[in-house]
């Protein structure tokens, strides 16, 4: 093992020196060319061979940008060191990939039960990119269901059971193979312990059993992080899933305004909302508003915003004065936001179907339920059509950006990490007054096929009773899908339709 580590260190050193030499040569040549005529040269381009071109188009490419290297050498060298270390197990053993728990310096900002709120942080020295992730986990909207939540899901209302470290996955992963674009950012995860969709601003009192301080927790985390390097950030991506995804929509402008007020005008604040774009639609079957699951989305939020002392973005509040609950629904709050936001939303979101009283049990769904599910997909498409940056697969699922399979999901041949990379590039270009998006780099991606899981890259579904994996056809049959009838509606033979489903067409 010692000999292998010795060889690994020698190889790593050679790699590192080679990259240094490459940068030196590039800088020298670049400087010499520039000094000849006083301007940047236009690089000569050669046409790739057909074989190479086909291979390049079939895989995603994240090329090295030497412009960025010249502008931020320290950051680039940090990435090279990390890459070199990750190439060999003996070097990788020395890396600490875990995010570590920090409690807020302002102890008056707390979880529901008065215990200290906090965050997990993995610093990436030299990187000027920060990712702050808001955790999800539903909510409660009155004393009765908050009491029940405290008994059954205490970690979502208290910090007493939080571990000292967490390992990031998906977009929070420090591993390039799992997180190709954001792996080297400073990673922050804020645990959800306020049960208020990150909107509350009310402390615990003698008359109130719980504090609801989600909005204030975000503010305090940002304040604490300024002393840990956020003050030198170039980009801050506020991301979140489920209730955290809605929390992004409610707080992204607040974070941007907070940094400006504190004098940090150079930080570009952006949002990434995953599975938080809920509809205030009519339930499939109306039920009494007893708990979060049975209550209609609008009624639950109307009660919750009063109970939490919830706050919403100022522009949305003005647009819906007296009915601020509207701001918890993506298609209503999004048009009022100033900060750029990328929306990730399954067209057949399991949480949305749950609150709409569509419960996918072992029995095939009825025809009315099937129509309702299809209509839900159409409604979501309509609310997303004017969102310029979004990724909406036709899948039955919930949350994705922190799943380790998030790199496998595609819409029209483009993966989610690739779409986010394209979005970053488009924002960078726009900041340089270049309004044209990068060619061949789509950021508005939505499936057009009409059924749940008609996209072949959807996450695997398992039968709830047998645990067996189901392919697309098995799943649709399980859902009560009538092949003969649907083929007739589409004007094709049943065998042709089955072939299209199998291939994901």
Overview of the structural elements:
- With 505 residues, this protein is α/β, with parallel strands linked by helices.
- The protein is 39% helix and 12% strand.
- It is built from 17 helices and 16 strands.
- It has helices at 2-37, 50-58, 66-71, 73-86, 89-92, 143-152, 214-226, 243-261, 297-308, 314-319, 330-333, 350-355, 367-384, 416-431, 472-478, 483-490, 494-503; strands at 98-103, 118-122, 129-134, 165-167, 186-190, 235-241, 268-274, 341-344, 348-349, 390-392, 396-397, 410-411, 414-415, 444-446, 461-462, 469-470.
- The protein has a ten-stranded mixed beta sheet, sandwiched between helices. A two-stranded parallel ribbon has the order 9-11. The protein has a two-stranded antiparallel ribbon with strand order 12-13.
- Strand 12 (410-411) and strand 13 (414-415) form a beta hairpin.
- Helix 1 packs antiparallel against helix 4, helix 7 packs across helix 8 (243-261) and helix 16 packs across helix 17.
- The longest helix is centred in the first third of the chain and has 36 residues, at 2-37.
- The termini are far apart.
- The model is unreliable at 1-13, 22-71 and 88-94 (pLDDT under 50).
- This is Notum.
- Belongs to the pectinacetylesterase family. Notum subfamily.
- Residues 33-56 are annotated as: Disordered.
- It holds the Pfam family PAE.
- GO terms for molecular function: palmitoleyl hydrolase activity.
